[in-house]
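COMPLEX REQUEST
Ligand: adenosine-5'-triphosphate
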Amino acid sequence: MSAIELHTINKVYGNSFHALHDLSFDIRDGEFMVFVGPSGCGKSTALRMIAGLESITSGELRIGGRLVNDVDPKDRDIAMVFQSYALYPHKSVRENIAFPLHMAGLPKAEIASRVDEVARTLELTTLLDRRPALLSGGQRQRVAMGRAIVRKPAAFLMDEPLSNLDAKLRVQMRAEIASLQRKLNVTTVYVTHDQVEAMTMGDRVAVMKGGVLQQVDTPQNLYKRPDNVFVAAFIGSPSMNLYEAVLNGRTLTLGSNNFEVPERVFEYRPSLNGASHRQVIVGIRPEHMNDAAIRPSSAEISAPVTLVEALGSESMVHLNIGAPWVDAGDPDAVADIGDERAAVARFSPKSTVRAGDIARVAVDAEELHFFEPVTRTSIW
Ligand SMILES: Nc1ncnc2c1ncn2[C@@H]1O[C@H](COP(=O)(O)OP(=O)(O)OP(=O)(O)O)[C@@H](O)[C@H]1O
Ligand SMILES: [Mg+2]
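STATUS: Structure written out below.
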């Protein structure tokens, strides 16, 4: 049993800097949990608290049901993999992987068989006698993983373990880590600031901002049912487009456009029924706007095209549909959410729209998101 439970965890650095606020959630036994959020949001702090490398100012942390607030890192039975995986340069791959077992004083025969097993799992068998300097970045990363898993810990903690690798290797290694974790079935907490990494690897993802947990959920739910504007804009690439709009009955006014919102949207969000000139923030994901000439919809808007980025498989079409909503109360919002003046739509590559055109845009209105302007929370 190695579930990890956080209960109203707070971290105050020094006397004043409140880095984590009332963090509460559970990580299930065997689960792959990802902490994601912008730089400085407290991901590493939270992870280091679980590892025991950072003191807990208040709250309770349990691993496998045991209160561990004051338990030494070495007595927590967890293994940590950092961004800079410091391998011993003068030791071979075999000796690097075996190191924690030597430290634990295991018999030689058992060390040898565990190292062989780990090397097979990570496809390092043919590299066991090499020094780290003669390995590629991905191979070195696997050795670091090997050193962590050879101990058979109750949980793995990883802090941006792939950020030193090039883009292609990152994609390959994240698939490898995810499948390795599934094979070993060990509770894992993985920190990243990359939402794509979070979405592709995690069973669940905890989205943090400014030391406050925003939402913890499956990748699919974060995408489909974000709790607030921050999660909505942080998850998904390109970001969700956000606009101030007015809902009157079934009619939504967005800039100079009006269209009818389908019945189903109101079934999911009963509190929007009977709206009378109600101010809302509306969110439209790029993939929910298409070229109406190719895929007509009952909800159509027209907008000047400012730029077309043809990517081959799709075209990113920048549209001017008025000034986007920006969280004025949040100094980080522009940096976090993007300072795009234009809406971005993901058109089929068959679209022939060009910069300077007025495009007819089909909105997949069933997929609209609605938020309260003041609280910035989702309207349901
Ligand atoms: N030892 C410390 N003393 C004071 N403040 C600290 C200390 N360590 C971290 N902080 C602050 O706590 C906040 C959270 O830091 P943390 O390292 O957890 O962020 P992070 O989410 O991991 O960011 P990044 O993505 O940049 O690694 C930051 O504002 C940071 O400056
Ligand atoms: Mg960090």
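REMARKS: The longest strand covers residues 17-27. Residues 4-230 form a domain with the Rossmann fold fold (CATH 3.40.50.300).
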